[in-house]
Design goal:
- By secondary structure, this protein is an alpha/beta fold.
- The protein has 12 helices and 9 strands.
- Helix content is 40%, strand content 17%.
- It has an 8-stranded parallel β-barrel, surrounded by 5 helices.
- The relative contact order is 0.15.
- Bound molecules: flavin mononucleotide (FMN).
Length: 246
């Protein structure tokens, strides 16, 4: 049976996860203005398993926000699996996502986000454990470029897919780059080329319909973060391109 990622009409123009930004009200506006998919902000797995009300509220959503992917973070495989299963049971989102892309100082210090790409075995263990705990909800991951070497990101994505990831969103910058320089989309295209059955979304510097048209190439979709940050209805303009020209 096809999972929701495979069923979604392509190209997917989605709202990227943004900490302290992509809450329920924001996501609803984004969906109403045409976003094909929305992500929650990242939620601490440890807070979910402790039933912290704020974390549970962050993982809840209304029907108008669907399709929605709830993103969690953490470095303990067992706790990540428990958190994912709790979210699945309580809220039944369309997808659950792991944040392997955060480059904030706090994340690096605490050992979650993009720093986990430096320890691929531990990250893959998390993916395996989370996938096997879920009863039907597809797991996706969001990463940065593992390094400037194409093979590193392809290898990570390949192992993640074998471990059970159904989709991957890639921000075209490395951990060290944070938000400097332009996002490198060439590596993202090469990941999709190497792994045609994996749903691959690109992220980084999408600000206009023109950007989407020029950057989408062989990808299944793109995610938009900063261009939507102060304007959740930006999707009205972003989707104003002729699909037949893609
Ligand atoms: C304010 C802010 C918060 C973010 N929070 C998250 C997050 O919670 N999880 C995540 O995976 N990425 C997060 N990101 C990264 C974005 O999802 C996206 O990959 C990145 O900003 C590049 O896309 P853009 O050029 O469209 O902004 C955040 C980015 C910004 C600007």
């Amino acid at each position: 049976m096809k999972n929701f990622w495979q069923k979604l009409k392509k190209p997917i123009i989605g709202l990227a996860p943004m900490h302290s930004v992509t809450n329920s009200a924001f996501r609803k506006k984004a969906r109403q203005s045409g976003a094909d998919l929305v992500y929650s902000e990242m939620i601490a797995s440890e807070a979910i398993i402790r039933n912290v009300p704020k974390a549970l509220k962050m993982a809840s959503f209304g029907p108008k926000e669907r399709p929605i992917v709830i993103q969690i973070f953490g470095s303990n495989a067992k706790n990540m699996a428990r958190a994912a299963r709790t979210i699945e049971q309580k809220f039944s989102p369309d997808g659950i996502d792991i944040n392997f892309g955060c480059a904030a100082e706090k994340a690096v210090k605490q050992g979650f986000g993009a720093v986990q790409l430096k320890k691929p075995e531990a990250a893959i263990k998390i993916i395996k454990k989370v996938t096997s705990s879920l009863k039907g909800t597809p797991l996706s991951i969001k990463i940065r470029l593992v390094s400037k070497k194409v093979a590193d990101t392809i290898n990570f994505a390949k192992t993640a897919q074998s471990a059970g990831a159904a989709a991957i969103a890639i921000h075209g910058r490395t951990l060290n780059q944070k938000f400097k320089d332009k996002a490198d989309w060439e590596i993202i295209y090469k990941v999709k080329k190497a792994l045609p059955d994996l749903i691959v979304l690109g992220s980084g510097d999408i600000r206009s319909a023109e950007d989407i048209k020029s950057k989408i190439r062989n990808l299944d979709g793109v995610l938009v973060a900063r261009a939507a940050r102060n304007n959740p209805t930006v999707f009205k303009n972003l989707k104003n391109f002729n699909l037949s020209l893609l």
